[in-house]
Amino acid sequence: MAEHAKAHALPSVSVILHGGEPLLAGPARLRRVCEVLTSAFDGVAELDLRIHTNGLQLSPRYLDLFDEFGVRVGISLDGDRAANDRHRRYADGRSSHPLVLKAVELLRQERYRHLDLGLLCTIDIENDPRAVLDALTELDPPLIDFLLPHATWDDPPPRPDGSPTAYADWLLAVFDRWQEQGRPVPVRLFSSVQSTLSGGPSLTESLGLAPTDLVVVETDGQLEQVDSLKSAYEGAAATGFDVFTHTFDEVAAHPGVRARQLGLAGVSETCRRCPVVRSCGGGLYTHRYRSTGPSGAFDNPSVYCADLAAMVRGIEARTAASLAAPEVTEPDELAASQRDLTRMLLARLNADLEGRGGERWAEAWELAAAVEASEEGARGLDEVLAHPYTRTWLLHALEQLHEEPGTVEAAGLLPGYLASAVVRGGLDLSVGVAYTDGRLVLPGLGELRIGAPGEHGTARVRAVEDGFLVRRDEGDPAERRIVRPRTAAPGWRPVRRFAMPGGAPGPVFGLALDDLDPYRDCFAAPAVAGLDDRAAADLVFRLGEAWVLIEARAPERAVEMAGRLTTLTPLSGLAPAEPSVGRHGHGALGIAVDGGAEELAFALLRGFRRAELRALVDVTDLYAADGSWEHRIPWQEEPVPFSRLLADTYERMALGAFEPRCLEGVPQALDTLEGAAELTVSGKRLLDRMRKEI
Amino acid sequence: MNTSESSPSFAVAKKNRVPLAEIDVRGAAAARRLGRVHAASAGRRTQASTFNSAL
């Protein structure tokens, strides 16, 4: 095991001592097992050592041993006494329930509590689901999981009332009780479904499409597939390999193990076409077994298929409202999440630098804390971080650091961003900012020429009431004062801002025409060099005409754009009506400089929709497993992945105001999107919003 | 001077504001959030045990 971990540089390995009943090995043998494992993994990988027991033998003698080696303990308990005694009695008929409770109580003691993994409950639908959950939660475990009893198509599970969804009904009754209780403890099965519904991974091999990375080492050294397979047929778990002559890579290549690592390709054709497959994953491999029929032995849906679908749908119906990302319907939430994401990238840059940024970074980082300590400073910093190309800078700085460890050149630009925040917030702080080629850049504000081309050095920037002051640390000691930073002055080139015309009520829609930011070149098409005043005025005039057209033909879109589109950057090589969304934060759009009003209106509408969808995808999971399926698209021959179908449909809906043909096929596309397995709960909320738009 | 461009979203951001130095950037939730825009920050996913028959 340690060899395997070392060969694959695995950060951690879980070893679960499992049975039968592993405590029957006795403390001495278990000590030896723990010693050998701990020593083998020392310096190789983190060892996550666990044991799963029925608890009957659990005593301080074992728990002291487990405490010594950090072995965490899970206990099987099927619920209240009536539930537990249905399958867990001694041979002479006595109840084992009191002893299990005693074991749980012992494990909950302060000295052992850190070893407690929780309770594992095998379902019997004859038991009262509410009483079972109550009995389990009363013991205050850190985690609960419910197991469907092993069954196959050859040996189906009991269904006393004949209901095809009896197990789903039972589990949903547990779910409802769990909700009533205020979800006092996580339930792995429910967490897994909620995770996959939201676009995350499954948390148990019994659900979801995540590859199974498990192997069983029998006590005689044989290597087997998971134990549950033994319920399918005699020898189903065998691989023919053992620890003495085979490696774990050989087991991993075994067809039976591979079959459970193929994700979507590893489930039956019926499952591949089913919209809940991302959550159920075709169910536990064992439960798919059928000895007869045209399909292979495991190439079937689960014998619990109807239950799994009903459970996933049931949990979705109960939780979609709380699971769906608020960003999808609340523009303020989207803006806040975008800003938080940029803040997180900045904090991550600080963490990844690990001190390599030197004194200069340390000072800047301290200054950042000082800036955001006041309300004005926090607002100023938020504004700088909300500038779309600040995100581009941070991504570049992180990539530079990852690709060439020790290269901190891009990270070193932080003081410029802080100076911009200080000026915006009007803070009484002095910031040392590097200038190059004689130019000092204040991102989002503008660029000041403070030296001859080729000159570089540091200058101090300080806010004053009506603008800011700049003084070079070396050379010319004269102080430059910029008043009204939004207005051009000799040597000072502000980012151009303009207001869209029109009669919409509310605040004036102001936009930046950013042909200045050093990080604006983040689109597929190249950014143009700075526009001269005449070219800029001409573009602004045509944008104004375009805006009038949008307000007249698509007023609801104009309202949306007015609050959320902040920055336009001229690009070269773009078709006049073709916008571009690049690698930047929320609010920017790349446009061609030479389009007419109609073309620019089209570009703004299309680009805004594209940028909005990108902004959502940056902070939420609207879909998962993109590319696993291909979808027919009404307006073209070749099938496309889900993301493309969604993006095209989202854009075409907005373009209908200018080009009615764009709406052709949209209803069919929405139906396709709705039935797709990729869709998450947040994606469904977006789809609801889209349906309301048409 | 103050060039404030505050928008309604500022109120939302402020409500949940965590100081820069205290933002969790290494946990699983952070990796998921960062990974959407910067794949390298997602890191190598270490998955908890998914063995069905034990916790």
- Helix amount of chain B: 25-40%
Poorly predicted ranges of chain B (pLDDT <50, ≥5 residues)?
1-13
Mean pLDDT of chain A: 93
Which structural class matches the secondary elements of chain B? mainly alpha
Q: How far apart are the first and last residues' alpha carbons of chain A, in Å?
A: 58 Å
Largest sheet of chain B: none
Provide the gyration radius of chain B in Å. Answer: 18 Å
* Tally of separate helices of chain B: 3
Tell me the overall shape of chain B.
elongated
Helix content of chain A: 40-55%
How many extended strands of chain B?
0
- Terminal CA distance of chain B reads 59 Å
* Strand portion of chain B: under 5%
* Rg measurement of chain A, Å: 31 Å
Portion in beta strands of chain A: 5-15%
Q: Give me the secondary-structure category of chain A.
A: alpha/beta
Question: What kind of sheet is the major sheet of chain A?
Answer: 5 strands, parallel
Please state the average pLDDT score of chain B: 74
Low-pLDDT ranges of chain A = none
Q: Brief overview, please?
A:
The complex is a heterodimer of chains A (about 700) and B (about 55). Chain A is an alpha/beta fold.
